[in-house]
Amino acid sequence: MKHLSPSILASDMLNLGAEIKKIEASGAKYVHIDIMDGCFVPNISFGMPIISAVRSCTDLVLDVHAMIVEPQRYVDEFIKNGADILTFHIEAVTEESAKEAIDKIKSHGKKVGISIKPKTPASAVIPYIKDIDMVLVMTVEPGFGGQKFMGETMEKVSEIREYASKIDKELDIEVDGGINDQTIKIASDAGANIFVLGTAFFKSEKPVLADEILSKTN
What we know:
It contains 8 helices and 8 strands, in the order βαβαβαβαββαβαβαα. The protein is an alpha/beta fold. An 8-stranded parallel sheet has the order 1-8-7-6-5-4-3-2. The longest helix has 13 residues, at 95-107. The chain is globular.
């Protein structure tokens, strides 16, 4: 199933409650929350209080993307504050800590995602696909919004989708970075089914409707 996951990194933080209502009104089912620690990526964004605040005002799926070092240390707090899907970066973990993070997330009954940066090969995440629910393929370098979509990352989306199909695994593939009403079609054709929209959602001159933009993937 295809979904939009509007990223509040591009929202009006002075009116976050109203921005969440905008997501609900669009028909989107997910809210994407980017957590940046200033170490794994060269920027700092949100912490636990924002996840908790968003959780308090919506029943939408909280799609939390942890761009942080040692993500396994914070799993319990992310879940406690409302994360429904928790995605960490393969580049931020060892094989041992990746397993720890996966096991912790699963122990809470939540969905596990692993993300890869544009220069990280699909092979880095392939060994984990059987144990997780989603792969997030970054289509820009993580850390800042408003960047241009990197079309070359679509080869990885296709490779991951092909592998998941080969092992008969139901896997969500999410794409994040430069997704708009044109690039969403490219990503969908490659095999993605969850699309993170930032500026294309919150800075649009007219209200974005999920069904309308998802129809462009057909």
